[in-house]
């Protein structure tokens, strides 16, 4: 029996100690940092490097990392010249990991030199500013959304990301929907200035590096630098875009952004969740955010909201991904990490600038693991998952502050707040913080389902069970034990008899 135990022990140790490496999105960087620390403390070794979505997708495709993180889809990167072909060759599945939002951060002082901390902007004005159609802080469009009080007649300096960036693609997708005429003119005049000739419907993944518009851009290599530039006031009369988590971390002022209902909101968790009721999830779980940008009418909905994703292997199609790593240790570590992120990893998300995954998308993390392993997906519920949405809330830090213009009576209040999340843990529940009530209409039910009714009802994978490939790892161990144990025992007995 001693021989049998020694033979089996390395199987467990190898899988438990297999380190995971990932890279990509800076949008999800603060969340990944939180998850990395939590996973490592639980014996799941993970190392994540925050670069950009295109970098993560391509490093994943080149097999230099085990998983990528992105908001930009592979097909959109390919169309925009951002690569993605190696990822397509490797095979992948999108796994949503958290909801987030792009904040509009700024550094502006008024005529008396005092810091402006109340900036309100509608979507069209934001679109025109970042398309260089509005170039001065005294523009009437900005004055109109700020209680009629003009800001100084100073040129607007834009802050953004250098190189290719998923956050840039996400933000300029919003710009394209918010101010299409200004956006189209901006793209056309910068085709030769570093942005490239973009096909219709394809958003830029990088900003101009030369030409007249580039003069008014200050580009930074990562999200941390943008937030630092705003919070330190090192670039006067500037405005930039960045994931809200960085604004919270560096205490950078963020604008109140008008949503489809005419209400001005900030990107706190409850507002992100309300907006993503309008996200249309495709069969591969990638997102269409057009209605989030333009039609999110729930109270508080913040219109520049989006899910982030990890990319893990899928070798033979989305429903038959078993064996994508070709390494049982990697597979075990990835499945443990995904379960951690889906449950314990969501507890802190609202506090650091995100919104936790709703129950149905947390379950999709388990379904993704099941496709890798060929085993039934673990079914999450309030009893076995600490994700706060299973308890009907978004966790600490979810609530948005009161709009100062509402408090001062400059604009009307937002009205009734949206409901808390459902405790439903089914895979067909809504990808939002607010699941429907019994009085919801069929149309509202469709909307709450991400715009795709019954978008994911199928069980994970119906793997074949006939050959050894579908037999399962535990079955192989049992077979091994049945064959080896009697031989080992017989050998020990013979050894004892020979010694005596």
UniProtKB/TrEMBL annotation:
Keywords recorded for this protein, A-Z: Membrane, Transmembrane, Transmembrane helix
PBP domain: residues covered: 14-344
Residue ranges, annotated region (Disordered): 409-433
Protein's name in the database: Phosphate ABC transporter periplasmic protein
Upper taxonomic lineage: Bacteria, Bacillati, Actinomycetota, Actinomycetes, Pseudonocardiales
Domain of life: Bacteria
Compositionally biased intervals (Polar residues): 421-433
Organism field: Amycolatopsis mediterranei (strain S699) (Nocardia mediterranei)
One Pfam family, short name: PBP_like_2
PANTHER family referenced in this protein's UniProt entry, alphabetically: PHOSPHATE-BINDING PROTEIN PSTS (PTHR42996:SF1)
Database matches in InterPro entries: PBP_domain, Phosphate-bind_PstS
Ranges that cross the membrane: 471-493
Family recorded in the similarity comment: Belongs to the PstS family.
Keyword Transmembrane helix: yes
């Amino acid at each position: 029996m001693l021989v049998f135990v020694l033979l089996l022990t390395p199987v467990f140790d190898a899988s438990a100690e297999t380190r995971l490496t990932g890279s990509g999105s800076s949008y999800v960087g603060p969340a990944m940092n939180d998850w990395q620390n939590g996973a490592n403390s639980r014996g799941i070794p993970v190392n994540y490097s925050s670069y950009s979505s295109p970098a993560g997708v391509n490093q994943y495709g080149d097999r230099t990392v085990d998983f990528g993180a992105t908001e930009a889809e592979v097909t959109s990167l390919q169309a925009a010249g951002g690569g993605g072909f190696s990822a397509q060759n490797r095979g992948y599945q999108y796994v949503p990991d958290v909801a987030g939002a792009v904040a509009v951060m700024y550094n502006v002082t008024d005529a008396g030199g005092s810091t402006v901390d109340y900036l309100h902007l509608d979507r069209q004005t934001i679109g025109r500013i970042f398309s260089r159609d509005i170039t001065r802080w005294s523009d009437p469009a900005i004055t109109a959304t700020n209680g009629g009080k003009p800001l100084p007649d100073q040129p607007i300096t834009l802050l953004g990301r250098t190189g290719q960036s998923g956050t840039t693609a996400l933000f300029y997708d919003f710009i394209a929907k918010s101010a299409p005429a200004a956006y189209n003119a901006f793209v056309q005049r910068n085709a030769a200035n570093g942005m490239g000739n973009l096909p219709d419907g394809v958003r830029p993944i990088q900003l101009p590096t030369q030409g007249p518009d580039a003069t008014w851009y200050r580009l930074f290599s990562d999200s941390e630098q943008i937030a630092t530039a705003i919070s330190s006031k090192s670039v006067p009369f500037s405005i930039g875009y960045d994931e809200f988590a960085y604004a919270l971390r560096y205490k950078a002022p963020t604008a109140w952004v008008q949503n489809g209902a005419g209400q001005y909101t900030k990107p706190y968790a409850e507002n992100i969740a309300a907006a993503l009721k309008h996200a249309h999830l495709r069969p591969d779980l990638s997102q269409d955010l057009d209605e989030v940008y333009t039609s999110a009418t729930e109270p508080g909905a913040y219109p520049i909201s989006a899910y982030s994703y990890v990319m893990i292997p899928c070798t033979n199609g989305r429903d038959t991904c078993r064996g994508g790593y070709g390494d049982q240790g990697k597979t075990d570590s990835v499945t443990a990490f995904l379960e951690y992120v889906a449950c314990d990893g969501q507890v802190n998300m609202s506090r650091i600038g995100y919104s936790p995954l709703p129950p149905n998308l947390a379950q999709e993390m388990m379904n993704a693991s099941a496709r890798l392993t060929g085993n039934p997906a673990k079914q999450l519920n309030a009893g076995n998952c600490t994700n706060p949405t299973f308890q009907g809330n978004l966790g600490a830090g979810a609530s948005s502050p009161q709009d100062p213009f509402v408090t001062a009576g400059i604009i009307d209040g937002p009205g009734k707040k949206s409901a808390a999340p459902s405790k439903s843990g089914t895979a067909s529940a809504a990808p939002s913080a607010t699941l429907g009530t019994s009085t919801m209409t069929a149309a509202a039910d469709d909307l709450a389902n991400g715009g795709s009714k019954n978008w994911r009802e199928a069980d994970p994978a119906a793997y074949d069970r006939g050959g050894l490939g579908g037999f399962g790892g535990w079955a192989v161990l049992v077979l091994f034990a049945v064959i080896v144990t009697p031989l080992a025992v017989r050998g020990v007995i013979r050894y004892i008899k020979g010694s005596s």
